[in-house]
Amino acid sequence: MSNLDTQDTNVPGTIFISTALGSHGPRVKWYPDRAGRSLPCLIVSIEADPKIREDFVQSPASRAAAPKVIAWVRLNYAALLNFWTHGASWNRREVSTFLDGLRKLP
Q1: Its domain of life (predicted)?
Q2: How many of the other CB atoms lie within 10 Å of CB of 68?
Q3: DSSP state at residue 36
Q4: Where are the domains of the chain?
């Protein structure tokens, strides 16, 4: 798992990415500032046509960030899904290569 900030994505805030956790489908979480387990977040599915699953932030910031998070997931869909599915077994170098290969929004 990793927390990606604006420098990594060109999306304001923090995007939390992980391998499969729990029984829900592939997803990323967006936080307006730093990520945190008990903090409200925006949840976006990892799929070819990403969708907002939940908006626990419900603020102007989350509404403004939502289309950017969706665009970023769409841009990195294949890599994010591969990480979600297989990343739990990757070593540090494989994770670093994955993170370095993620593309930023223009």
Answers
A1: Bacteria
A2: 17
A3: -
A4: 2-101
